[in-house]
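Give me the fold.
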Amino acid sequence: MFHEIFQTIFYSDLGSNLNNAALLVFRVLLCFEMFRVHGLKKVAKAGGAAEIVPNPLKLPPKLNQLIADFSDLVAPVLVALGFLTRFSVLPILAVTLTGYFVVHRRDALSVRDVPYMYSLSYLFVFLVGAGRFSADFYIYKFLFG
């Protein structure tokens, strides 16, 4: 049972080196864009203030900001490295799906498109895992040969 749980969490192999390399490139570029476009806005720049994110779920403000910061700054780095990928995708999905279904629910499709595409992309990574070229794969191989 322990082995099956770890296999579900860590193991992912798309069958060929080309498929696994394509997933690696997809993960890295997706996470780079999330970090660059959304994450860096949350870090205070010299002389400026960090972005304050909407709080549509009425969470405590510091918790809301922490979740947004983690999902745009830390989680993309973990996903790009393929480290605890399926867990690391969850906070990103929480934020992007909230953006799509709550924050932008009445906006034009051109505005809703961004959280929609991020959600689909990260859902794909969640379902297929990180692939063979990832920290998860090597952790699994180290633990179970």
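The first helix runs from residue 2 to 10.
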